Amino acid sequence: MNPVATKGTRVAVLYTSVSETLTDEKGKYCKDMDLAVNARSVTEALRSAGHDAWTQTFGKDLGELISGLRSSEAEAVFNLSECPNLSPEKELHACALLELLRLPYTGNGPLALGICNSKALAKQLMIANGVPTPRFRRYTSDPGGDPGLSYPLIVKPANEDGSAGITEDSVVEDLAGLRRQVKWLRDEFRQGALAEEFVDGREFNVGVLGNGTAADPHRSLPPAELVYRNPRWRLCTHESKWNSAHPSYAEIAPVCPADVPPELAARLSGITLACARIFRLKGYARVDFRMNAEGELFVLEVNPNPDISTDAGMPRAARAAGIPYPDLVLEILRLGLALRAR
């Protein structure tokens, strides 16, 4: 890594409140997803390194937010905001606002966030660039007949993140199941559905750091594997990812670095770096994979600005690369400052 950011930078750690944004499908708060906890960990790491850092909530009143950033004389923003105005599709607007205010910020910009939030658009970009991804169809209404895909399929919201809308019922074996899940997503999430061929095999993810510039090229972190300890579970659902009381939470365990041969690790890294280039990723991101029985890798999603809470996958991969959590936070800040006002 390059030297960390200059000490003494005034940094607002911007986050969206769990009470306004991070609710599960039934409307109960997911305390395990509380971004305020994450924001405090980031702020502590920045302060320990000599930066003047404080938390700033991205609330419903944009005028109040702009006034707060200006009156505090923030020199940069550590952007942890998600789902402004209760919409994951508006995540890109937070950093767009920071660009209009001419404030340097961490992580990815509006283009990458917008494309990756639209799962179908992201997959079309992968296909156009030769990145392997499962075949799919997008539905905005009831499936009228044969989808032209091979069952089983996994059906997920077209525009969500954090595994929202993913349940054990998401994997379907026939047209009746496909129609059921598309209807459920339209009713519960008020949006279209993405149905893709389900790859039933090992599941990996790879973190990436860098800006894709000559000074800060993209570099991949050690691959991680989600190990399914109980064959009852076929995929990582919203519950298994965020609800510590759910039985699958403890039975789907991340292992980093993954126990894979060098050849597979190299393939995972190569595809990850290709995605970083294609999607013009900045700062930090994660690429999710499945591998079929023949050893073929398929990219499921590209995740710009993934969770960096202390026990999340990105910090875990950084630790495996010899980067402790405080240094990861400082590196993300440095990469943001290197891009200046965008």
- N/C terminus separation: 22 Å
CATH class of the largest domain reads: Alpha Beta
The CATH homologous superfamily of the largest domain is called ATP-grasp fold, B domain
Radius of gyration: 20 Å
Q: Which band does the percent of strand residues land in? A: 15-25%
Pairing-aware structural class of the strands and helices? alpha+beta
Share of helix among residues? 25-40%
Provide the residue-averaged pLDDT: 90
**Would you report the number of β strands?**
13
CATH-assigned fold name of the largest domain: D-amino Acid Aminotransferase, Chain A, domain 1
Counting structural domains, the number is: 3
* Secondary structure tally, helices: 11
**Ranges with pLDDT <50 over ≥5 residues?**
21-30
Biggest sheet details? 6 strands, antiparallel
What would you say the CATH architecture of the largest domain is? 2-Layer Sandwich
Structural notes for this entry:
This protein has 342 residues and is α+β, with helices and mostly antiparallel strands. The chain folds into 3 domains: 98 residues, Rossmann fold, CATH 3.40.50; 158 residues, D-amino Acid Aminotransferase, Chain A, domain 1 (2-Layer Sandwich); 62 residues, Dna Ligase, domain 1 (2-Layer Sandwich). The protein contains 11 helices and 13 strands. Strand 8 and strand 9 form a beta hairpin.
